[in-house]
Amino acid sequence: MGGHLHTESGSCGDPTGAEQYPANPVDWQTFVNKPWARTSELSCPPESADYQADPLDIAKPKP
């Protein structure tokens, strides 16, 4: 689990406050409920390992 991506409905221009996205047939998205309570199951690299992701392939650094 590397990099961080956070969106808020207000920043996406959604006046209802409910984010909605079309289905993505290519990539999977996973929601982890209360990750701070699951430290024995989850681990993240140090923040020094973060990088700005390529928007076309978030697994790679931005060119």
What does this structure look like?
It is a single chain. This protein has 63 residues and is largely without helices or strands. It contains no helices and 2 strands. Strands 1-2 form a two-stranded antiparallel ribbon. A hairpin with a 2-residue loop joins strand 1 (53-54) and strand 2 (57-61). It is extended and about 35 Å long. The two termini are 20 Å apart. Residues 1-6 have low confidence and may be disordered.
List the helices and strands and how they pair.
Layout: E1 53-54, E2 57-61
Antiparallel strand pairs: 1-2
Give a quick set of tags describing it.
single chain, 63 residues, little secondary structure, two-stranded antiparallel sheet, extended, disordered N terminus
